[in-house]
UniProtKB/TrEMBL annotation:
<keyword id="KW-0472">Membrane</keyword>
<dbReference type="Pfam" id="PF13559">
    <property type="entry name" value="DUF4129"/>
</dbReference>
<feature type="domain" description="Protein-glutamine gamma-glutamyltransferase-like C-terminal">
    <location>
        <begin position="139"/>
        <end position="208"/>
    </location>
</feature>
<keyword id="KW-1133">Transmembrane helix</keyword>
<keyword id="KW-0812">Transmembrane</keyword>
<protein>
    <submittedName>
        <fullName>DUF4129 domain-containing protein</fullName>
    </submittedName>
</protein>
<feature type="transmembrane region" description="Helical">
    <location>
        <begin position="72"/>
        <end position="89"/>
    </location>
</feature>
<dbReference type="InterPro" id="IPR025403">
    <property type="entry name" value="TgpA-like_C"/>
</dbReference>
Amino acid sequence: MGFPGGGALLTDGAPVEVPRDAAREAAQEELRKAVYHQHEPGLVQRCYDWVREQFGRALDDIGAPLGGSGNAALAVLLVVLLVLGFVAWRRYGAPRRAARAGGTLFAGAQGPRSAAEHRADAAAHAARGAWEDAVREQMRALVRGLEERTVLSPRPGRTADEAAAEAGRALPQQATQLASAARLFDDVAFGERPADERAYQLLAELDRTLGRTRPQPVPAGGGTA
């Protein structure tokens, strides 16, 4: 039989006093044993429960001004996410594949055409809002114009990147713009990037700028191909 304060009885009935601090430490040591904690949730479960609780409180805070519960707030949150997704899709277009390297500039063109003919086709496509076709034809007009001025030598199998690199050596001030124009063409023609009026106008303006630019002599061994 125990006594208050940590006392106990010997077998002959005489009380034996146990210090209070020693009794407390013995009890704490006993409670540390795993058998008393085997049914408690683990660390991962406790973290998950805490995150879920915090998320639920946040939803309740959002739903409170609406006079609703966390379910109402969750519905509002889903609507907001859908609206943001739609806006992003309208602005940037559907996910696109990376442009294929090595696509030839005049692939699919209707036979050899002059720069003026390509420009006219580009303008016609732009007038009806067919921006992808307008970009293709305007880039072709740009390169054909360089060929007609002998900045580039005619080469049917040339890619847009090759044309930009070759022309950039003779027109160094426009080398960066030429490289950007080639990437734009590849993205639209082979990477399924949606084109727009701005893309077409960028190429048309570069075409006009190149027409007013005098090429520089190319060092031996670095001539146009």
